[in-house]
Amino acid sequence: MEIVVLTMKASVIEMFLVLLVTGIHSNKETTKKVKRPKFTVPQINCDVKAGKIINPEFVVKCPAGCQDPRYHVYGTDIYASYSSVCGAAVHSGVLDNSGGKILVRKVAGQSGYKGSYSNGVQSLSLPRWRESFIVSEAKPQKGVTYPSALTYSSSKSPAAKAGETTKAYQKPSVPGTTAQPVTLIRVLRTTTAEATHTTTLSKPSPSAGSSTSSPRPQPMGQRSQELELWSTTVYTSSPSSAGTNPGFVPKEELSTQSSEPVSQGDPSCKIDLSFLIDGSASIGKRRFRIQKQFLADVAQALHIGPAGPLMGVVQYGDNPATHFNLKTHVSSQDLKTAIEKITQRGGLSNVGRAISFVTKNFFSKVNGNRGGAPNVAVVIVDGWPTDKVEEASRLARESGINIFFITIESAVENEKQYVIEPNFANKAVCRTNGFYSLNVQSWFSLHKTVQPLVKRVCDTERLACSKTCFNSADIGFVIDGSSSVGTSNFRTVLQFVANLSKEFEISDTDTRIGAVQYTYEQRLEFGFDDYNTKPDILNAIKRVGYWSGGTSTGAAINYALEQLFKKSKPNKRKLMILITDGRSYDDVRIPAMVAHHKGVITYAIGVAWAAQDELEVIATHPAKDHSFFVDEFDNLYKSVPKIIQNICTEFNSQPRN
Fold first, then answer.
1. Predicted pLDDT at 464
2. Residue 26 half-sphere exposure toward CB, CA atoms < 13 A
3. Rounded CA gap, 394 and 465, in Å?
4. Residue 646 has what pLDDT?
């Protein structure tokens, strides 16, 4: 009996051991089944910018070839989020041109970014930007899970090119915790001016942000910025967002005309006005709204109408785009409605590119330019441009455009190192006397500029950059210094040249003066580029010495074409004023024909023994308007008013632009 009981106990123990071993094995299998999948590193292309990716920290794989200068990088060590992620990785030395994995971490925006050359990549300088990032080797922090798919700020994300999927953003999670979607909010410090301006600038409700969000730290010296929400969808300045033509905006922004009777406008302020507004990302949404309100206030104050001022708007960022031209809206109310519908484009602050765009495209007849009205362009700049403006502005002024600059919150001392073109506003405007430039300390003071600006743009008598017969020419004097003239009469001729020159507005962007003296030979007394003020020109004329010799007028015309007018600016009217006291020893017909063919308007002034038939050959057709004869040198001064009148009559009969 005891033997049977012992046998049963052994069987029970054996069964228990079998079950125990089976359970352990089963548990191992279960453990294997719940093992986490291997982390997949998302791949991006070289042109993907950090600002397009919402995730604050992520690991990505870059392809080869990102050292290419096409992929722009802004900054050194800390990069603006407008930079190529992979380009920055190469610049920082974390990657070489063969590509690889990197860890990217977003940090606060900086007040400026310094460009440098490193590892085969030339990074660029940039003013303040809303967000930055740093790049390091792909060594993930222990206990942090990084996203296998990135979240982009646009529905048309570059992830599609690399075969990625896009999902709602979640913070990197720690094992054992549940990742919750979060709302990103940027809380930036406010200025005293903002705090005192609450009657016109309402702040977003505190409920707009997540209760778990915290203020984003700002670097020392960061520019004052407004409270502004970040959404997971950001407007981008891609060609698709502006139609097939990047220079124009969607048609729905143009369809705002009312059916009310149209005001004829203020006839005392008949100007064709273009506003170039700042749509760059650095300006922020709230400042952009302030800018639109400023435009609406100006439109109201100007009394827009077909018999008065007309106004169009161009917005710039990376590239400029016309929102509406001069003839789209012909009343202040229509303009205000259209302005309200303008949306921000984002991107950089390429002011020079915008000015070039306006010069080439905006002030044309098809866009409503009226020809007889002064052309005015008002450029609004937040901080400073990301490209150079001097050359573009010079060409605009020489095309007859009066450029006004409104600079808001200019660079302070510790930010000036980031400014690409120091004193850019003074280099851009026609005169540096303060008339054409307005510096506003804060965006919240911009409304105070409405009346001063309106007063200036309507003061057509002071719009010195408008094309007139006095400021739009290269004038070359060709002076007979032959023996028959004599020293005393030669001084009278020089006084005649000075009297004519005094009538013109002289500068490097207005009328320029040059002079050639001839006998059998020729010499250049001074060229168009030698003097650019009226006193300097008059002193140069006084210093011309009498040469004495024969009279080879034909050769002198050829010489003037080569040495003077070959260096004339393309958009300048070319005027040759030739003074002689006798018949030429050489043929003048062919040289005169060449001058006419090259567009040089020639005035022939004869004295005493000059041959009138030869003067008519030299002069531009009709000869009666371009050739003059006086019987003695002392009467030369009498012809000055008639010559000036004919120059202006001819100019005014031509299209203005």
1. 67
2. 6
3. 10
4. 92
CA distances for 625 relative to 604, 605, 619, 629, 646, angstroms: 10, 11, 9, 12, 7
Residue 192 scores a pLDDT above 60: no
Helices (H), 504-622: 534-542, 553-563, 589-597, 612-618
In order of 493, 569, 591, 622, the CA distances from 553 in angstroms are 16, 25, 9, 20
- Other beta carbons within 10 Å of 330: 21
SS (H, E, C) 473-521: EEEEEEEECCCCCCHHHHHHHHHHHHHHHHCCCECCCCEEEEEEEECCC
Q: Which amino acid is at 323?
A: H
Phi and psi at 163, nearest 5°, equal 75, 25
- pLDDT tens digits, one per residue of 564-578: 999 998 778 999 999
Contacts of 29 (CB under 8 A, 6+ apart): none
CA–CA separation, 446 vs 505, rounded Å?
Answer: 33
How many Å apart are CA 612 and CA 635, to the nearest integer? Answer: 17
* Pairing between β-strand 310-316 and β-strand 272-278 as defined by DSSP bridges: parallel
Q: What is the pTM of this model?
A: 0.52
What letter represents residue 412's amino acid?
V
- Strand pairing partners for 137? 102
Give me the residues paired with residue 482 across strands.
none
Cβ contacts of 617 within 8 Å, gap of 6 or more: 588, 589, 592
Residue 365, burial from CB neighbour count under 10 angstroms (0-12, 13-18, 19+): exposed
CB 121 within 8 A of CB 171: no
